[in-house]
Amino acid sequence: MPTSSNGARNIITFQKYERPQTLDEAWELNQKKRNRIVAGTMWMKMGTHSFGTAIDLCDLGLNQIEETDEEFRIGAMVTLRQMEKHPGLAAYSCGAVEAAFKDIVGVQFRNGATLGGSLWRRMGFSDILTVFLAMDSYVELYKGGIVPLEEFARMPYDKDVLVRLVVKKQPGAFSYQAVRKQRTDIPSLNCAAAQVAGEWRVVVGSRPARAVVLRDEQGLLAGGITEESAAAFADYAAGAVTVSGNMWGSVEYRRALVPVLTRRALLALKEVQ
Amino acid sequence: MEIKIKLNGTMVSDDVPADTLLIDFVRAHGCLSVKRGCETSSCGLCTVLMDDEPVLSCSTLAARANGRSVHTLEGLQEEASEFVGFIADQGAEQCGFCNPGFVMNTIALLRENPDPSDGEILAYLSGNLCRCSGYEGQLRGIRAFLNSRHEEGANHE
Amino acid sequence: MNRPEYQSVGKSVRKKDAMQQLLGKPLYTEDIVRDALVVKLLRSPHANAIVETIDTSKAKKVAGVVDVFTWEDVPNERFSNAGQTYPETSPYDRLIIDRHVRFVGDVVAIVAAENEAAANKALERIKVTYDVLEPVLDFRTAKDNPVLVHPEDNWRMLCDLGGDNTRNLVGTTADEGGDIEAVLADCDVVLERTYHTKAYNQAMMETFRTYTELDRYGRLHVISSTQVVFHVRRILSNALGIPKGRIRVEKPRIGGGFGAKQTAVCEVYPAFVTMKTGRAAMCVYTREESQTCGSPRHEMEITVRLGANNDGRIRALGVTTLSNSGAYGEHGWATVGLTGHKSIPLYTGSLEAFKFTANVVYTNMQPSGAYRGFGATQGQFAVETTVNELAEKLGRDPVELREQNMVREGMEMPAYFGEIANACALDRCLKHCADMFDWKAKYPVRDMGNGKVRAAGVGMSMQGSGISGIDVGSVTIKLNDDGTYMLIIGAADMGTGCDTILAQMVAEHMDCSVDDVSVFGADTDASPYDSGSYASSTTYVTGMAVQKACTQLKERLCAIAAEALECDANELSFEDGRVVREATGEEMSLVDVATKSQVSNCLAPEATAMHSSPVSPPPFMVGMAEIELDRETGVVEVLNYASVVDCGIPINPALARIQAEGGIVQGIGHTLMEDVTRTPKGRIRESNLFTYRLPTRLDTGHIHVEFENSYEPTGPFGAKSIGEIVINTPAPAITQAIYRATGVWHRELPILPEHIVLAKPEE
C-alpha cells in the first residue's frame, strides 16, 4: 500500500505520454519493459511509480458499454460510474453491479477508475472482480484472445492489452454483499452469489487474496435456497475458502465473515430469483 | 509536452512535463480553488469537472485532459453562488479548505439530479471529506436551497 | 432569568469569511505566497538510531538543488515546538536536526531546491548510514527503561514538573482529596478498569505548511498555517538563535487545526532555509508526513477505580494515567492533567474522595501534541464508561445514576482546583437530551432480525474555557474614518468563526452592525499579544479583552468629542453608536469624532486591552448514541446522535452548533474507525487517508444538537467555551451502546467490527 517514506509525495513519474490510435500500436508500445498502460490512474496514484512511457488507451473507443441480446461488451476505458449507472447492467445483475460499486470511495473516483485498470491489476480487494466473477464473464485480450474471467484472475501479469470485458447474458440472478469497517473503505470481505445458466456460484473476494469462485459440487443447493441449504453452503464455504490477515481484517475475522456473507448472499439471491 | 485544455471556457495551452497532474496544471493556471488534501485519491478536495463529470484532479493526468474541457470553481462562480449562501447560513463552511471540492461536486450532483433526496445527496457527496463541519450543516444548507427553489417554483406557477 | 435582548450577540450571523471560502478564493498559505524554494525533509526509517555518516554530495549536484543541510549545520541549542505560554511546561528536547533520530520519520536532512522534482530526486541521493539502536515501542515499559530516548546532557525543562530524561519521563502529576483507600474500603461496589486510547490524528484537511522570506528590512517573515503566531515567533527565535524582534509571523486562513497547529510542526525547516540562503522557502507536508510526523493525540492507558454504594452514590474516583508523548515532549504534561481534572469533577455530587496520578513517558514513536479535547477525551472515555458499567452492575438506568451523582450549579469542585460551578446546566442538558433522544424508548435493546440489534448509550462531558491564570487574550479596536471599526486580534480563526464571534461582541458593545467591524489577524507585527487559539480560550478569554477594549474605546471617543464640544469628558456618554451630551442634547456622530481625531488631536481613537482569567469555567455536555449493530459482522451503524450543550450563552448559535456537530463526528471517528497501529519496527501503518479512515457523511447517522444556556459571570455576555468539549461524548456513549448490543465492554478504542465479532463475553 502507498508509502513514500522520505517526505516525497506519492508520485507517478514518466517521460513520455502516448495515445496510440490502434490496439496494435498500443500493444507494441506496451512490449517495452519501461512502458506502462495507464488507465484511470486512481489506484496507481496511491503509490509511487516510475516508468518510461505512459500509454493511454483513451482514443481507442473503449469507453462504451455495448449491449446486445446475447451479451454486454464493456470497453477497458469504461468507468466504474458508467457501469454503476447502466440500466441494462442493473437489470441483468439484479442490482448487484450497483451494490458492488456504490461504496468505492466516491463518485469522482468512480468517474476516473476504469474497468480495465480495475480488472488488470486483479487486486484482491476488488469489488469489480468479485461481482463479474459471479457472471459468465470473459476478458478479451489483444493477443491472448477471449479468456474466461475466472482463468484471467489466476493468470500472472504479462504484457498483453486488456481490450474489454464480455458478459454473456446467461439467464441468471445475482446478489452482492460486502463488509467494510467504514462505508467507503475497501472491504474486509466481499461476496457475490449467483445462479447463472443453472449453475450456482459463490464468489468470495478481499480474502485479501484474489477472489475465488465456489460451485455447488456437493449439490447442497440442489433443492434451491432455503435457510438450511444456505447455512449448509456457508459451512462448506467456510472450509473451502482460505483467508489471511491484513489491515482490513485479521485471519480470524475473515474466517468468521466467510460463512456469514455466503449465507447472506445466498438468501439475498433467493429474494431476486 | 504541449497540453491544451479548455479551462473555464478559455483555451489554455502550456508545455509541461508529460507526467504533470491535472491539479498542478490548473493551479499553475490560476485556479487556486483546487486543493490537495491527500495523495491517495481519498478526500475529494481536488474535484474539478472534466467534460462536465466530477473527477479527482490530483489523480488525473493533465495529458488525459488534453483536448477536453475542465471547469474549476473559478469558472462556476455564478452557479455556485445560487446555493453556497445557504451553506454559509449554517456556518457549515468552517475552515473552508474542503469547500471548493464539495461545492464542485454539489454542482455536479444538482446538474445530474436537480431534486435529490437526502440519501442521494449523502451518497453522491460521500467522496468529499470534511473534518470540521460534521456534514449535517452542509446537508441542511443544500436542503434549504432545494426548499427555496421549490418555493420559488411554486410562486411562479 | 431575564437577560438583556441583544442586537448582535446570540445571533446566527454568517461567518465573515464564509462566502470567500465557499467560492474558493485564494485564502490559504499555499495560495497567497510567491515562488519559493521547495523544502523537503529526509526522514529516518528507524525508530531509534544515530546518524553515523551522511553524504549529501550527490544530492547537492542534482540540477535545481540549492542546498542540503544536516545535523552538522544546525545550532546545538535545544528548544520545544510546543505552542504554550512561556515558560513552557514542555521540555526543551529538540534540535532542528538531531544526529540522534528518535522515531520513524524524525528529520535527517533538509533539502532546499528550485522545484519539487529536484527536491525529491535529492532526497533519494542522500546517503546515510545509521547505527541502529533498540527502540522503546511499548509505552508501558518506557519509564526507567534502560534504553533512553533522550540521553543527551543538554535536555532541559524550564519548570519542575517531574520530567527526567534519565528515566524517560516527560513529567508527572498528582492530585487528591479525601482518603480514597478508606472510602473505597467502605463502598458496596468497587470497579477497577483499565482503558487504552490511541494517537488519533487531527487530520485537518490542510496539512502543515509554512512559507518564509526575508522582508524589506531583512527580518524573517513567516506566513504559516498556525493557531499560535506569537508562540511560533518564540519557538523560531529559540531554534534559530535570532531575536524575536527580527521575526514576524502571520497566519492567513487556516485549513483546520484542532490543536495540531498549536505545535510548530514544520515552521522551523523553511525558516532555517531562508536564514541560510536568504531566499523565500516553503514547506508543505504531505498527508503521509502529516499523519506520521505531526502532533496527534497522546496515546494513553487509564485505570479508573470507582467506589459506589448499592443505592447508586458514587463516593470515590481514582484515575491513574500513563501517557505516551512519543519522541518529544510537546504538551505532554499539560495534556495528561485533563484526564483527571476534567473527568472526576463530573461526579462532584456525592464524591467523598478522589485521587489522580499520572506519568508521561518518552518512547520512540511519533511525538504527540494537542488535539481537541486534550486529555479530557481520554479521561472521560475511561470514567464515563466505568460509570456506565456501574449502572449495569447496579441495574440502574445510567441517566438516573448520573442525575444522582452529577455536578450541579453552585457546587465547589474539589477535583477541579476547587473552582465553583457558577454556570452549570448539566442537569438540564441531561434531561433535555433524554427527552429529545427519547431515551426511555431507545435504551432497551431491540432485536431487528437478521443478526441486527439496536441499542443506546450515554456520556457526559466537561472541558475548560482557557487556561486559568496563564494564557492571555488581547485585542485592539480602532475607529475608522467612516465611523466603522477595525478589530485587530492575535487569536486564530481556523474555521471556528472567532473572527466573526469577536466582531459580534464589538458590535454589541459599540451599538453598530457586525458588518461595521472589520477583523484583522493574526500577525505578530500588528496584533496585540495573544496566546493564540487553543484550550477553548478565544470566545471566553479574548472575548473579555473585547469587552474591556470597547469600554476603554468609548471613554476615549468621549474624550476626543469633549475637545470638539469644549466640555468635560464626564459630561459625555456613548450611546447608540454616537457621543451624546445629555445636558445640552448635543451629539457627535462617529464620523465626526473620527474626523476630529485626525485634526489637531493627541488622543488616538483606539484602545487595546488584555485579559486573563483566574478561573476556567467548564462548559458541559451530554451525548446519546443510538446504534444498529450487526452481531454477525460486527459492523456498527450510528443511527442517531443527540446532544445538548451548555456553553453558557452561545454568541453565535449556528457556529456553536456546527462546532458541536463536527466534534461529534470526530468522536465517532476515533470510537469506530480511526486506528493507529505500528509495524514491529515502529512504522505507523495508517499513514494516509486511504488507511486512516475518517468518517464520511455516510458514517455519522443523524446528529441533533441543542443547547441549554447557563450564564457564566466571568465570561463575555455569559459565554463559556465550546471548541473542545464537543469531541468527548461519542466514545463512552457508543461504547455503552455496543455493550448493550453484545454484552461486552470494549476498553480499547477504536472498536472495530472485528473486535466486536471476535470478543468473548466476560464472566
TrEMBL record, chain B:
Q: Which GO MF terms does the UniProt record name? A: 2 iron, 2 sulfur cluster binding; metal ion binding; oxidoreductase activity
UniProt-listed CDD domains? fer2
Q: Which Gene3D superfamilies match?
A: 3.10.20.30, [2Fe-2S]-binding domain
Does the record carry Iron-sulfur as a key word? Answer: yes
Print the keywords alphabetically. 2Fe-2S, Iron, Iron-sulfur, Metal-binding
Question: Could you tell me which InterPro entries the record lists for this protein?
Answer: 2Fe-2S-bd (IPR002888), 2Fe-2S-bd_dom_sf (IPR036884), 2Fe-2S_ferredoxin-like_sf (IPR036010), 2Fe-2S_ferredoxin-type (IPR001041), Beta-grasp_dom_sf (IPR012675), Diverse_Oxidoreductases (IPR051452)
Domain 2Fe-2S ferredoxin-type, by residue range, is: 1-76
* Top-rank taxon, per record: Bacteria
Q: Short name of one Pfam family for this protein?
A: Fer2
Residue stretches in coiled coil? none
Q: What is this protein called?
A: (2Fe-2S)-binding protein
Q: Give the source lineage, highest ranks first.
A: Bacteria, Bacillati, Actinomycetota, Coriobacteriia, Eggerthellales
UniProtKB/TrEMBL annotation, chain C:
The answer to whether keyword Zinc-finger applies is no
Query: What molecular function does GO assign, one term?
Result: oxidoreductase activity
| Record keywords, A-Z | Molybdenum, Oxidoreductase
Every copy of the Aldehyde oxidase/xanthine dehydrogenase a/b hammerhead domain together lies at 23-134
Q: Which PANTHER family match?
A: ALDEHYDE OXIDASE 1-RELATED, XANTHINE DEHYDROGENASE
List the protein's name.
Aldehyde oxidase
Which organism encodes this protein? Slackia isoflavoniconvertens
